[in-house]
Design a protein that fits this description.
- The complex is a heterodimer of chains A (463) and B (588).
- Chain A has 463 residues and is α/β, with parallel strands linked by helices.
- Chain A has 13 helices and 22 strands.
- Chain A has an eight-stranded mixed β-sheet with strand order 9-17-16-18-20-15-21-22, with helices on both faces. A seven-stranded antiparallel β-sheet of chain A has the order 1-7-4-5-6-3-2, with no helix packed on it. In chain A, strands 8-10 form a two-stranded antiparallel sheet.
- Chain A is elongated.
- The N and C termini of chain A lie far apart (66 Å).
- Chain B is of the alpha+beta class and 588 residues long.
- Helices cover 33% and strands 24% of the residues of chain B.
- In chain B, strands 8, 19, 20, 21, 22, 23, 24, 25, 26 and 27 form a ten-stranded mixed β-sheet that branches. A six-stranded antiparallel β-barrel of chain B has the order 1-2-5-4-3-6. Chain B has a four-stranded antiparallel β-sheet with strand order 13-12-10-15, with no helix packed on it.
- The radius of gyration of chain B is 28 Å and the shape is globular.
- Classes of the chains: A alpha/beta (463), B alpha+beta (588).
- Chains A and B meet through strand 5, strand 11, strand 12, helix 6 and helix 7 of A and strand 1, helix 1, strand 9, helix 4 and helix 6 of B.
- Strand 11 of chain A pairs antiparallel with strand 9 of chain B, so a sheet runs across the interface.
């Protein structure tokens, strides 16, 4: 952290939760970084509201134990971090203190953690298909380089495994370019962080990754800067060093809770579930830093993970995230209990940028149609499954029974796969065709006839 | 008049400033050493509350503020088309050239290029009398758009001088002598305060639907040219794709596309893909008639609020030239959140969900700027502005304030449905929850293709409605247990859904459906029902009907080019139905 000396004020008049109210200050800037000096050491904070003679400060650490006599030093700078290629392979705390026993990074190149806004005119449309080797993603919710695609999950589901599998397998078919990973943890458990560290170590990814860890027992307010530090590093690696970066942010729900606690301490008017009205805009300033820029080689692909409290997708955090990100991958307990891995419900899942990343020259020309047909057929099958609960299998028409069987097989053979199973996109689409051939051919109306003639198993080998 | 002040307090985007004299509400100000753009939103004697359009971090109390004495205005003139503006009308391409790919604060650039020359052709002669709104000349702005240079509202007099030539937007192209003998230079550029509606002579009735080539819209829930429509839907229901489809294919002369607090990549998508698409009407690239305002979600919230007014003002300006303008605002919810944000910082007492009590008034103000009018000026020039606003209701809940208030002020409502989106039924416009108040206008227009249009449309909607009721029953007793007449209704509803309502925006043929083809498709589907319904009543089993080869064909007609395949399918249907009748003649 770049910190410069300055006056120390001992004029704190009020401590309310994570907020300090300091009087008699001069020449303080909005958003300026503050060092709060206590008997135990220093804690970082930043200015939230400032007038000519007072400032309101949010503290990114514990305020319990502080008294009104704490020293407050204004640094004259907004929050900046030094960036260089030496960050690669390092592990830091949620406020950028080294956790790997090495020294603090130094560089003359310092960047504001809030970053800039990518000019919409300078953005390049993400369009390179990333093969993750996971059928439910590649086949039906394809990820492209520069996309922001979150995983919506619930506690206890294997979202970490899925994220680690994607990080391990993700590649652009035909090119030997791998991702470097920037990993930011917010309020997750030690063992979860350890899981990622081991996974990255096993695959050799650790040596080209940067890990920023704020764990469950670290100060919650620190989480407000953790993802911003991660994105600042990612921007530097992608747009200065031309690297392809996959950013994993987990768990964004913990981040939002930290934001909420500041908002409540400031007595702001809450909107839903106590979250502030600016949650959408705030999340956007983190998520929107992903993407591609015209004339730059590198890219930032973003995969935030968030657990939906109570599995409720209408909860403000997943809801607002879904409005910002380019789709979402949804994991469900129901599928998990039936032993499906990844337990991804494809129906509410979506990749908005899929259309630009698939098709001729990218994946295969039948890809879009096959995906559409799978959606329609699986939706039909799950509807039939609902009916069975009421009328029993005997009450179904033959057609409905066909779809019911399709849905079961689809989950078992297409969605379900091994943690170490890396399917090529061709393999994924071939499984899809095998499944679709269970249905009457005239029902495949979302697929162009020429593709049916070319790829349908019953025409194969007929030349 | 310019006034100076000093910053007292900074709270996010709100900057409280004390001026030496009382400033005016709505004045544009330059804040701090960096000269950030802002607007005065509240006044208490000499203390002004400023909403700042750029990020305020690093700003200090004590820094200077300059009140420009002018409200937030839009610059109007040649150079608007194809440009991408931010919420306060700075060209983002120019910002990129000046400051690189990341947006930098405190850059002041004029909206219209001051260097570029345009070829001006006069349309009036020296000595002619003109009034505000009259066209004095034209500029070929793009291949598709002739930019008509107007006398600014309120001005009148006699043209003293006017000449053809290449001018920049700020050079005089003509000179006017007012009735009081004053001389006034006329330039191609004029300014207009964005929050004030531009004046017109008279509002007139709406007469034609906006044809978008999207079947569910044009046939079932049309919007009139000059009308207003709203499109609410949870995330992933396809609002943005739909608005993009309309902005691509709508038969308007000018398109204004406002990305208000939405994704940066969507704007990049528009800029990348529009130039590759050709307008079926003019044969020109679609970008040649499009103005884009891109104030994306991670840009400062308060500029979002301005972006909608800016877009509407530019739309009105082209309306005043006698054009049909269609404006898409995606999304008005983000605009409303910007209102809420500023209101919260001003510590106003909130009404519902933290929104200020004046939310409904502000929504009404925007949609009321839509309309079909006789413009100012001599003669009877007609122009229209159609406003289509996306709404992003939290949790997809249509009972939230922005959706409910919007409903009061619009004529067409396209309700997007999550279940439909899950099955990849796009556009996911739900036929039972959507409505249009422009059916009369549309009926008159469509009857040119088929006098029975309104009847067919009504019948199709009725069948869809009946099908959803039958499905309720089927959910309890199973489809198999239903009488065949009802199962036929389910079949025809499925055929209407798949063969008509579902439209693939990414398919070369299906992305745009001509009006003639829409009518022919609908007619073919309804004839299928009319022909098969008597058979089922006579006891021919539904499985036989479902097994007809023409059934999947009818659902595929939309992806075939032209009308000829439809005629062929109808002949095929006739033949198959006869065969079936033959087969069952004895039994019947």
């Amino acid at each position: 952290m770049v910190v410069e000396a300055g006056l120390i004020y001992r004029t704190t008049r009020e401590i309310r939760g994570p907020l300090l109210f300091v009087e008699g200050v001069r020449d303080v800037a909005y958003d300026e970084v503050v060092r709060v000096i206590t008997a135990e050491g220093e804690v970082m904070g930043s200015v939230l509201d400032v007038s000519r003679d007072w400032a309101l400060i949010q503290v990114f650490g514990e305020t319990s134990g502080m008294d009104l006599n704490v020293g407050v030093r204004f640094t004259g700078e907004t929050l900046k971090i030094p960036v260089s290629d030496e960050l690669i392979g390092r592990i830091f705390s949620g406020s950028f203190e080294p956790l790997d026993g090495m020294s603090s990074p130094l560089s003359t190149d310092v960047r504001d953690v809030h970053g800039g806004v990518i000019n919409p005119a300078a953005r390049a449309v993400p369009s390179e298909f990333i093969q993750t080797g996971v059928s439910a993603i590649d086949g039906m919710n394809s990820l492209v380089r520069g996309q922001k695609l979150p995983i919506f999950s619930e506690s206890g589901l294997p979202h970490n495994r899925l994220a680690a599998q994607i990080a391990r397998q993700a590649t652009i078919p035909g090119r030997e370019e791998e991702f470097a990973i920037v990993f930011a943890a917010m309020g997750i458990k030690h063992e979860e962080a350890e899981f990622f560290r081991e996974e990255f170590e096993k695959t050799g990814a650790l040596s080209k990754s940067v890990m920023i860890l704020n764990l469950a027992d670290d100060p919650p307010i620190e989480r407000l800067v953790t993802p911003r530090i991660a994105q600042t590093i990612a921007e530097y690696l992608a747009f200065d060093l031309d690297m392809h970066i996959l950013v994993i942010l987990t768990d964004m729900t913990n981040y939002a809770e930290a934001l909420r606690s500041i908002s409540i301490a400031r007595e702001e008017i809450p909107t839903r579930k106590g979250y502030p009205g600016y949650l959408y805009s705030d999340l956007a300033t983190i998520y929107e830093r992903a993407g591609r820029i015209k004339g730059k080689r590198g890219s930032i692909t973003l995969m935030p993970i968030l657990t939906m409290p109570g599995g409720d997708i209408t909860h403000p955090v997943p809801d607002l995230t879904g409005y910002i990100t380019e789709g979402q991958l949804i994991l469900e307990r129901d599928l998990y209990l039936r032993g499906i891995y990844p337990p991804m419900n494809v129906l509410p899942s979506l990749s908005r940028l899929m259309k630009d990343g698939i098709g001729v020259g990218k994946t295969r020309r039948d890809h879009a149609d096959v995906s559409n047909q799978l959606y329609m057929a699986y939706a039909e099958g799950t509807r039939a499954r609902g009916l069975v609960r009421i009328v029993g299998v005997v009450g179904l028409s033959e057609r409905e029974r066909g779809y019911l069987e399709f849905a079961d097989e689809f989950e078992r053979r297409f969605v379900n796969q091994g943690y170490y199973e890396n399917r090529s996109i061709e393999k994924t689409l071939d499984i899809a065709w095998d499944l679709l051939s269970m249905l009457p051919e005239e029902d495949l109306i979302r697929i162009r006839e020429e593709y049916i003639k070319e790829f349908h198993p019953s025409y194969r080998g007929r030349g | 008049m310019e006034l100076r002040g000093v910053i007292e307090r900074i709270n996010g985007s709100l900057v409280i400033t004390r001026f030496e004299e009382e400033p005016k509400i709505g004045d544009l100000v330059e804040v701090g050493e960096m000269g950030l753009m802002g607007e005065i939103v509240r006044l208490s004697e000499k203390t002004a509350y400023i909403q700042c359009y750029e990020a305020t971090s690093g700003l200090k109390p004590g820094e200077p503020v300059l009140d420009t004495g002018k409200p937030l205005v839009a610059e109007l003139g040649p150079g608007l088309i194809t440009t991408i503006f931010d919420g306060v009308q700075r060209s983002e391409s120019t910002l990129w050239e000046i400051a690189g790919p990341f947006i930098t604060r405190g850059i002041h650039i004029p909206a219209l290029d001051r260097e570029r020359r345009w070829h001006f052709e006069p349309r009036v002669e020296a000595g002619e009398r003109v009034v505000g709104g009259d066209i004095i000349g034209v500029v070929r702005e793009t291949e598709a758009v002739e930019h008509r240079i107007l006398i600014p509202p309120g001005l009148r007099g006699r043209i003293r001088e006017i000449s053809e030539g290449d001018y920049t937007v700020v050079e005089p192209v003509a000179e006017l002598e007012t009735p009081w003998g004053e001389r006034q230079e006329l330039r191609m550029m004029q300014e207009w305060p964005v929050r004030t509606p531009r004046p017109y002579k008279e509002r007139i009735p709406l007469v034609a639907p906006l044809i978008t080539g999207q079947r569910v819209i044009d046939t079932f829930f049309p919007v009139a040219k000059g009308g207003a429509a709203s499109i609410p839907g949870g995330f992933g229901t396809g609002k943005t794709v739909m608005l993009q489809q309309i902005s691509k294919w709508a038969d308007a002369d000018i398109i204004v596309l406002i990305g208000c607090g939405e994704r940066g990549n969507e704007m990049a998508d528009v800029v990348t893909h529009f130039p590759k698409l050709i307008d079926p009407k003019t044969g020109e690239e679609l970008i040649e008639r499009t103005i884009i305002v891109a104030n994306v979600s991670n840009m400062p919230v308060s500029a979002r609020e301005a972006s909608i007014y800016l877009g509407v003002t530019m739309g009105e300006y082209f309306r005043d030239q006698g054009y049909d303008v269609a404006l898409m605002a995606d999304s008005t919810s983000r605009w409303a959140e910007a209102l809420r944000d500023v209101s919260g910082r001003l510590e106003e007492i909130p009404a519902e969900r933290g929104f200020p009590a004046y939310l409904a008034d502000r929504i009404a103000e925007i949609y009321e700027r839509a309309g079909r009018v006789i413009t100012l000026g001599s003669g009877e020039r007609i122009g229209s502005l159609t406003i289509l606003g996306a709404v992003s209701p939290p949790a997809g809940d249509f009972s939230e304030p922005v959706t409910t208030h919007t409903l009061r002020f619009i004529g067409t409502f396209w309700a997007l449905d999550t279940e439909l989106a899950f099955r990849r039924h796009f556009p996911a416009i739900h036929w039972l929850r959507s409505f249009t108040r422009y059916l009369d206008v549309a009926s008159k227009w469509w009857s040119r293709f088929d006098p029975r249009w309104e009847e067919m449309r009504g019948k199709a909607l009725e069948l869809l409605e009946e099908a959803s009721e039958i499905e309720e029953t089927a959910r309890i007793i199973g489809e198999k247990a239903l009488p065949d007449e009802q199962r036929l209704v389910l079949l025809i509803a499925e055929m209407i859904r798949e063969g008509f309502l579902v439209q693939n925006a990414f398919d070369e043929v299906d992305t745009y459906c001509e009006a003639e083809k829409q009518v022919a498709l609908l007619r073919a589907l309804m004839e299928f029902y009319d022909r098969t319904e008597p058979l089922v009543r006579k006891g021919i089993p539904i499985e036989k009907i479902r097994g007809l080869r023409v059934v999947p064909e009818l659902m595929r007609l939309k992806e075939r080019r032209g009308l000829e395949p439809i005629e062929r399918a109808k002949a095929e249907m006739e033949r198959e139905v006869r065969e079936l009748e033959e087969e069952y003649r004895e039994a019947i």
